[in-house]
Amino acid sequence: MCAMEPTEAQLVEMFRRMVRIREFDERAGLLLERAIVPGAVHLYVGEEAVAVGVCAQLNDDDYITSTHRGHGHLIAKGGDLGKMFAEIYGKATGYCHGKGGSMHMADQSLGILGANGIVGAGGPIAAGAGYTCKFRKQGQVTVCFFGDGAAAEGSMHEAGNLAAVLNLPVIFVCENNLYGEFAHVDEHHAISDIADMATGWGMAGAVVDGMDVLAVFEAAGEAIARARRGEGPTLLECKTYRFYDHLGRDYGLTKRPEDEIAHWKARDPIARLGTALAERSLISAADQDRIVEETRAEIEAAIAFAQESPEPAPSALLEDVYVPEPAGTTNG
Length: 332
Hints:
Oligomer: single chain
Radius of gyration: 20 Å
Number of helices: 12
Strand order of the largest sheet: 1-2-3-7-6
CATH architecture: 3-Layer(aba) Sandwich
Helix content: 40-55%
Structural class: alpha/beta
CATH topology: Rossmann fold
CATH class: Alpha Beta
Distance between the termini: 50 Å
Largest sheet: 5 strands, parallel
Number of domains: 1
CATH superfamily: Thiamin diphosphate (ThDP)-binding fold, Pyr/PP domains
């Protein structure tokens, strides 16, 4: 049964995990700028309350599917920072042995079915995982994180429809950060609230303040509890904002209004929770600063682990890769 009110220990841990996500991605963005790591790195800075608020309500054996902006989801569910940096560096000790990079990390031991560079691809995977949860009858649920851009993809509508028809324990969490790559949400959606799509899918839907981890925690808790009771899927639209550009930090590719950026940064989810914790005398501002410093030390150790890790051996090129047998061959 999901709790609608977090305990004091949960509140402190949620703050710590949001800080961990923020500091991880700030550093990952800097590594990208300096051309120290290869490939693309999409940052989750500003959206931390969504991943943490949702994942705080999940068990280790619950599943999540992620997106190209998936560092936050992995960290929120307990991912290993060393393995994450190693994967970004392309090292053999990474989550996918250096073959997946920033956009394709997975940890099945934590129910993390993988980040995904294909927009909207997590929906069908989540529906499949949700069917597994229903078949096993062990009370598991699946959460599908996706963006406002993915909400316009056919794969998401197919997944939502299937989840409703089969009454699957799936929670679809739309992280509406206002921009699909560089296009404002008003340019690719005719509706104001993506949560309204729930009516067409035949499931419950709700709009949530995605900059308030407590609001996300409560809404996710209700949806997850309903799914565990066998009452079907839910679509949650979390209104949030990414502080940086589509890729990396500020490259100036998205010409966003300065007042818009200032408005959302003034609602920084980490600062908001920090203020609430101080007002409740749970952790002082000094204690919060200490958590930030501890997190930065943890990240330095994770980066050192990645830098010292070996490159994948050439002989491992085809390991962990699905290669179908040529037509006409047999298994012996």
